[in-house]
Sequence to fold (409 residues):
Amino acid sequence: MELLIIGGGPAGLSAAIKAKEQGLAEVCILERNSHMGGILNQCIHHGFGLHIFDEELTGPEYAQRLIDRALDLGVTFMNNTMVTDLDENRLVTYVSPNGAKQVQANAVILGMGCRERTRGALRIPGFRGRGIFSAGTAQALVNMRGFVPGKRVVILGSGDIGLIMARRMSLEGAEVLGVYELNDFSSGLKRNIVQCLDDYNIPLYLSHTVTRIVGENYKLTGVYVAPVEEFRTPIYSQEEFIPCDTLLLSVGLIPENELSKKAGVQLSPITGGAVVNSDLSTNIEGIFSCGNVLHVHDLADDVTLEAYRAGAAAVDFIKNGTKISQASKIAVKAGNGVSYVSPNFVQPNQDVELLFRSKDVYRRATTTVKDGETVIKTVKRRVVAPGEMEKVKINTGSMRSCVVSIEGS
Fold:
């Protein structure tokens, strides 16, 4: 097999499309679910496709555009197929309705997406019965199964899925009592705060968290919330009890990199995704990574654009072999005010777009890209926030180092 793609969401589909457009004969997507499209299938709200298709689509519509294009180009789909192993030689082991099989690939693209953090990761004490859901699980229940989890809802975390579900639950007749965010800034897009909370009069409580969960007879009856002080320590003297029957958790996403670890792919301790070069290749030759399995994106359009690059790079590798010079690689580092930057390495004399997130909210912000003490580029923005991915395009020229930093008030 020339190219195997693990994951049939927007990343996998887009990478497959680009590989086929580049003339590759054998492109196969392995998808564990019964349908291609990934998380897009349960995102029935509008807002997708403005950059790729020049129109506003729902998640399923966006997915179907990619699926139709991939089918037209002759991409092979394998649904209900779980990849169980991947080694450093690109030997892929998978289980499908036809049994367990192995296939050797000339190149592999990792497009497995991400998963939600669970209640267990938060270590919130108290009741452990029914009524507690991740925001994504609640979204699937409401949008795909027509089941509304409850009538009085508290949401912990202001990630985009949580914000969108605040609106969705309101539209289904539930009372959303509030969204509580541990940080002093929202982790979601500004537009989602406006369209999903402000437009529905749903309060957002920054610097607050859930301290205890209460229930009886295996059913949630309420939660205690409290403001937090320095170091995110709850102020227990100001705890407040909120009666509710549903708690939704929107507390971050984690790239699905178990297979990456098996193959020996180096992972970033910050993003949890692969460490990649500017062509999205990993430290394992012939294995590429893109989309939310690399780092969590805000927009499906950005996932598609990144996956296009991975698909083109995989084809180039298959046809021409590796082109990354280990000796000339330039490490891209996160400086002051920056959480992480992707890609992690670039090459000299290259046009490249750097994607990064800030650590905090900065107003009158200036982003600076430096090679040592030499300023390569500056970009000024009115506001920079962790909830929105930032981008800057540079030409690496003869750079020997690359540091991205942010300053502001």
Remarks:
- Residues 37 and 54 are 20 Å apart (CA to CA).
- The chain has a mean pLDDT of 96.
